[in-house]
Specification:
By secondary structure, the protein is α/β, with parallel strands linked by helices. It has 16 helices and 11 strands. 44% of the residues lie in helices and 11% in strands. The structure holds S-adenosyl-L-homocysteine (SAH) and iron/sulfur cluster.
Amino acid sequence: MRFISRGIKEGCLPLLERAKATPRALAPAELAALLAIDDDEELAALFAAAYDVKVRKVGRSVSFRGLAEIGNVCAKDCLYCGIRKSNAHVGRYQMPADEIVACAEFAAREDYGSLVIQSGEIESESHTRFIEDVLRRIRPLNLGVTLSLGEQEESVFQRWREAGASRYLLRIETSNRALYSRIHPQGHSWERRRNCLAALRRCGYQVGTGVMSGLPGQSFPDLANDIAFFGEIDADMIGMGPFIPHAETPLNDAPPSETLLLKPGADAKAVAAARLRLGLKMIAVARLYLHDVNIAAATALQALADDGREQGLRAGANVIMPNITDTRYRRSYQLYDGKPCLDENATACRGCLQLRIASIGETIAFGRRGDSPHWHARTGTPLEQGAKEPGPGRG
Ligand code: SAH
Ligand code: SF4
């Protein structure tokens, strides 16, 4: 694959100019060429071009969503995930409704503007009703509410939408069906996931999807096709992150992906740096291809470098999801090894993030829902007017 990187050396700048000027201007082979960049100077040019598009489309401003990891009970057995059904070492929990409502109240009080409710996948009438009740209770807080609760029937998506959820995040994980079947056990269906994304769209959600980068067996053309897939389904929001092995999962010992461009004998530190670098390139190329979507700087970036999420913002992301889950649950919600802030409470996370974001010259859009500009454009919904005044003591 490295020949691609050398091959585009002279061609990189015109590609970036074309991508900056027009969304969806690049063909998959050109996206792959950008993703394969390994030269530091070219990488800096890639990030600068993506940042330029971000500033034009969404400004130098970061939207916050408080992330509540409401439960780790999961019916699925994804081969990469630390809370997969077969991992018997995980103590299972489900947050009671009152605690989820308290998380939402915290997000509202802190002026985050939005809340993400995430958990393992459960399909049952009682769970559907439980989520519905929670959504009705938090509706008066007027937060943007994103659900990330896995695959469900369209009627369930519809009920949750009517109860007050406005966004749904369901990563396709990879657009390559053969790779999807290699990283999932039998019975997990790529087609169903794809159909769920279509159903979410029909239900009127702002639809978010994404992939993991650096999966074992993944290639640059796969990642380029992932980004083209985001365009094909006309996604409003992108939540991508680097794949990080979890010791208690079957994929822990799989050979690293060629997309990490590892030098022979690379140590753990070099591998982490390569995972981060690829995750940042994915953000930048997605921004250059899609222009006006919301893109999250995933927590997995922070697991690889202390300032991983700020690097994500510099590469074109505009959303951060501070974890507001009570610390007593965080150890039981480890999708990958090295999850950050396990012992840090939500207030500490907020203060620390504010400093980090100021340090890169961006501001936090406190009190705003931060809906996807792409969704505004495609639905004709007017943009949210002026930010709410920050509450006392907020900067
Ligand atoms: N159960 C829901 C939401 C929780 S999992 C769902 O699967 O949609 C949220 C995301 O965590 C997944 O989409 C997956 O991309 C990511 N994830 C799981 N294991 C991971 C790992 N080892 N490294 C990086 N991301 C991982
Ligand atoms: Fe469950 Fe989501 Fe983990 Fe898959 S990725 S095992 S669906 S929590």
